[in-house]
Amino acid sequence: MKNINTILAVGTLAAVCGAAEAALIAAWDFQTTTNGGTALAAAPNTPKVITANFGAGTIYLDGSNGSSNFFQPATGSTNTELNAFGGTSLNADTTIGMSTVTTGAAALAIVGGSGAFPPPANGKSMVFKFSMANLANLSISYATQRTGTGFTSQVLEYSTDGATWSSIGSNDSIQGSFSVNSPVVTSFSTNGLNGATVAYVRMTLTGATTTTGNNRFDNFIFSADVIPAPGAAALLGLAGLVTTRRRK
Question: What backbone phi and psi angles, to 5 degrees, belong to 209?
Answer without folding.
Answer: -120, -5
